[in-house]
Design goal:
The chain is α+β, with helices and mostly antiparallel strands. It is about 40% helix and about 20% strand. Among the domains are: about 15-135, no CATH class; about 180-255 and about 615-710, no CATH class; about 370-490, no CATH class; about 525-605.
Length: about 725
């Protein structure tokens, strides 16, 4: 339906603006300068078909008061703006002015009068108006309010909780502690994750042991990760009652109390202990593989106003403010460990940290697989010395040599991810010669041998090479050539494990509760070096111009044949000599400057901040748990559903099912609505039976089970 405006008023049709208000607009004569109708018109307002008010828009103050009053009484701001040809920002500013300065703040213009000049009106009204620009004052107030909200969020005070207690949740309240008959919930499919985590990861007991009664926020995070709810603020779109009954909570509180739950858990500073216990349990219980570990870094962007170190944005191919999450996963895509590092992160150092962390738990450390970022003879040498087996792509491969290899050299063939490959294996002799800086760091000359694989993709007719070391000088892993080639291919394109798919289903970049502290890394490239380089570049540009002029200048001589002292060529020669001396002096000064300086010692430079990751660790712990549980349940589902192309979508269809939940003194039972297709419904029923047979139990001693069936509330 076409929206009437001020230009479509000849039929005096009433325009609906919401809140029961309708407007009739009667245009007067057009403005002489602008030609706009609304500079001289009369507006009649009706409410519920009864006359409400008539306003002459020649009186600007009356117009503003009328518009503000109209919106405050229920009219829709956007519809009022469209009908009266006003900007929504102007209406917003008028409302804010009334809020902070009263009606006097709204009446900041003058009634148009033909009998008085504008200067006379200003003199008469000067005593009635406030000083300054209201828009600028509102901008300052909004900025102040925003900063106050941020400071309250970062410096949360537990004394502001009801009763002044540290914990707003009673320790006696446990999940699924109440009893009730069947209740409907559209989030019943999330219970799949609850049973899997409780049975295999001992999840509820783990978080409850570290965080006590503050563990309720983890249950909320579980719902967010399972249903791809990407922030606590987006929880406003869910049905709180249905979520609470599914999660076993008495109620799901409002946003402010949810943030209190979060800060109470984060204040305990136990995220690292929780993560370590979780990762160790996975390895000991055999929930993750310890054969191949794939490690990669991923940008966690930061868009705030504070100065932090920059990471690297692979998609944009440029540095970007943020952090780097270094994630390690096994060959099936299950996450086995992760670390959030400031700035770009150090992938190489992460390898050695993993070896130190897991040396006590693992008798034989897994084969580390990484991309070309870790390429380097010095890094390879240290891996070999510490007996860490690895596989990676060769960064500086000789493409011409690879293309020249005859086809009969590629003796081994295999299929991987639906594509056919052949490979050729040879040995690569490596000699690492450390430079002066590396010698100071303790590195020494090292001679070692790596396995090189030239992999030929038959479908695209492309060749690439990779490197591997399987511990021949130490405890040999006994990797076959095909295993090395498949490990290398798992870090390329569509075959890449986990990393390209995790963020599609989970809010990987979400960082609840930003808190910033001063960073320990305050070194930056010396700005004086860049300034000196600019001076040298400018001097050299002048020199090049003088060189050209000197070549073109004629040689002027006196009558006796001697060179004239004050000739143009002589003057140019003197200038060239002087500039060459300046360049030489500036280059000496530049060489004496230190490459790195502490930013706190410089003027007009702000110090780097570091993001506190306590809250991020808690959320990523839940995201990791949900991801690994999903991987395991998809593997179970694959046993009863042979179509690999649809098995993941089938699992998400099951986890999104509506259903019903019942809690008794001994059991918590969830019933899912059945899928329509018989083949899918059979797989759904078998998955639910498998989960129910795991024997999952809440900390309060109630058995958890899930089934598929009809609506139990209908007789």
């Amino acid at each position: 339906m076409k929206q009437n405006t001020l230009l479509d008023v000849e039929d005096h049709g009433r325009i609906n603006v919401g809140g029961g208000f309708q407007l009739e607009i009667y245009p007067g004569k057009k403005g002489e300068s602008t030609g706009k109708v609304h500079l001289d018109c009369r507006v009649v307002a009706y409410r519920n078909a009864h006359h409400y008010q008539t306003v002459d828009f020649k009186d600007h103050a009356a117009k503003r008061v009328f518009v503000v009053e109209l919106v405050d009484k229920g009219a829709v701001q956007a519809q009022v703006a469209d009908a009266l040809e006003l900007s929504r920002q102007s209406i917003h500013n008028w409302r804010e002015s009334k809020k902070h300065f009263g009606l006097q703040g709204v009446i900041n213009n003058y009634k148009v009068s033909e009998s008085k000049s504008l200067s006379k009106q200003r003199k008469e009204k000067a005593s009635q108006l406030g000083s300054g620009n209201n828009a600028r004052e509102l901008e300052v107030l909004r900025k102040k309010n925003r900063e106050e909200r941020e400071s309250q969020q970062l410096a949360f005070d537990f004394s502001c909780c009801p009763g002044g207690k540290e914990e707003t949740v009673s320790p006696a309240v446990q999940v699924y502690s109440g009893e009730h008959d069947w209740k409907q919930t559209r989030y019943a499919g999330v219970f799949l994750y609850v049973i899997s985590l409780v049975a295999n990861w001992n999840w509820l007991a783990l978080v409850r042991g570290f965080f006590g009664s503050c563990y309720h926020i983890f249950v909320v995070f579980l719902l967010m990760a399972a249903r791809n709810i990407r922030s606590l603020e987006q929880l406003k779109h869910v049905r709180f009652g249905e979520c609470a009954v599914l999660l076993g909570l008495p109620r799901l509180p409002a946003r402010e109390n949810l943030w209190q739950w979060f800060y109470q858990a984060a204040a305990k500073k136990r995220s690292q202990l929780l993560l370590r216990a979780y990762f160790v349990h996975q390895v000991r219980a055999g929930l993750v593989s310890v054969w191949l570990w794939f490690t990669d870094g991923h940008l966690l962007p930061y868009s705030g106003k504070n100065k932090i170190h920059k990471a690297y944005n692979t998609q944009r191919r440029m540095p970007f403010p943020g952090q780097t999450s270094l994630v390690s996963c096994d060959g099936t895509g299950r996450i086995v460990d992760f670390s959030i590092e400031e700035g770009k992160g150090d992938l190489r150092q992460r390898m050695f940290e993993l070896a130190d962390q897991w040396s006590d738990e693992l008798k034989s450390f897994p084969v580390m697989v990484f991309d070309r970022e870790g390429s380097g003879l010095g890094f390879f040498s240290e891996l070999v010395k510490q007996n860490i087996c690895f596989a990676t792509w060769e960064k500086y491969a000789n493409k011409k040599r690879m293309e020249a290899l005859p086809a009969e050299e590629f003796t081994e063939s295999f299929s991987f991810n639906g594509k056919d490959y052949r490979f050729f294996e040879e040995e690569k002799l490596c000699e690492f010669q450390p430079d002066e800086a590396e010698k100071e760091a303790g590195l020494t000359f090292h001679k070692f041998v790596l396995r090189r694989f030239v992999i030929w993709n038959l479908s695209s007719n492309r060749r690439a090479s990779g490197l591997a070391w399987d511990g021949r000088d130490g405890v040999s892993k006994g990797l076959t050539g095909r295993e090395c080639a498949e490990a290398i291919l798992s870090r390329w394109g569509a075959s890449e494990n986990t990393f390209k798919h995790l963020n599609d289903r989970h809010p990987l970049h979400y960082h609840p509760g930003f808190k910033l502290v001063n960073s320990d890394e305050q070194l930056i490239s010396n700005p004086a070096i860049e300034e000196s380089a600019g001076k040298i570049s400018g001097l050299k540009t002048k020199l090049r111009k003088l060189y050209r002029d000197a070549v073109k200048a004629p040689e002027v001589r006196n009558k006796d044949g001697s060179v004239r002292c004050n000739s143009k060529k002589q003057r140019l020669s003197e200038k060239i000599t002087d500039l060459e001396k300046q360049v030489s002096e500036e280059q000496v000064l530049k060489a004496q400057l230190t490459k790195k300086v502490d930013v706190s010692t410089l003027e007009n430079y702000s110090s780097f901040k570091r993001i506190d990751n306590e809250g991020k660790h808690l959320f990523d712990f839940v995201t990791t748990s949900v991801w690994n549980a999903r991987k395991q349940m998809v593997d179970w589902l694959r046993q009863d559903f042979t179509n690999d192309n649809e098995v993941v979508d089938l699992f998400y269809a099951i986890s999104d099912c509506h259903g019903w939940i019942k809690t008794t003194s001994t059991d918590v039972v969830v019933r899912l609505e059945p899928l329509q297709q018989p083949r899918r419904r059979t797989a759904q029923e078998r998955l639910c039976k498998k989960l129910s047979q795991l024997g999952a139990m809440t900390p309060s001693g109630k058995w958890l089970s899930i089934e598929v069936g009809k609506n139990p509330t209908m007789k």
